[in-house]
């Protein structure tokens, strides 16, 4: 994934980008134009022009990194711990009869317990950032008997299955072979 912290550069990449911006500021101060800086630092002209505008309006400090992008989590560490506990309790503890957590249900639990509103997509980002992954339940009949299925596969399926064709010599070409 190009952006390792889910939507932004890694810490190392941010520091490298900031270093480039500071070098660009020194070059701008020395009288270089944005296209010249772009060529010198192997960056796009668009970035060089944007950096020059920022440098002109706020100096070198305007080019400092503002940290990782994206929204900040609206739940504290204690609340996240409590959310994990609520999810472990299961959907039945929150009034749903089937045992499936859906993103809207988790959003409803967060709204009910913490009085914080999240969209389904926001819940997905929140859970993925905490190591949770989506699980798709396997739908099977309650009457299903695994022992009978295994036994059936052993004696009946082998009789129904076609015997393997023996390999025959031939051409792998889709066209007929030329006759001599």
From TrEMBL:
Winged helix-turn helix domain span: 98-153
InterPro entries: Homeodomain-like_sf (IPR009057), Winged_HTH_dom (IPR025959)
Name of one Pfam family that matches: HTH_23
SUPFAM superfamilies: Homeodomain-like (SSF46689)
Domain of life: Bacteria
Signal sequence bounds: none
Protein name: Transposase
Organism per entry: Streptosporangium lutulentum
């Amino acid at each position: 994934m190009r952006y390792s912290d889910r939507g932004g550069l890694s810490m190392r990449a941010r520091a490298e980008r900031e270093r480039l911006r500071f070098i660009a500021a020194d070059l701008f101060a020395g009288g270089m134009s944005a296209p010249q800086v772009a060529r010198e630092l192997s960056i796009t002209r668009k970035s060089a022009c944007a950096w020059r505008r920022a440098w002109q309006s706020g100096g070198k400090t305007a080019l400092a990194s503002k940290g990782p992008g994206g929204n900040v989590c609206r739940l504290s560490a204690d609340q996240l711990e409590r959310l994990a506990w609520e999810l472990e309790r299961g959907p039945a503890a929150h009034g749903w009869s089937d045992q499936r957590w859906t993103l809207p249900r988790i959003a409803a639990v967060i709204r009910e317990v913490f009085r914080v509103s999240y969209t389904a997509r926001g819940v997905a980002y929140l859970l993925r950032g905490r190591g949770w992954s989506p699980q798709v339940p396997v739908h099977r009949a309650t009457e299903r008997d695994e022992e009978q299925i295994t036994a059936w596969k052993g004696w009946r399926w082998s009789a129904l299955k076609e015997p393997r064709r023996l390999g025959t010599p031939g051409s792998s070409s889709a066209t007929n072979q030329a006759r001599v």
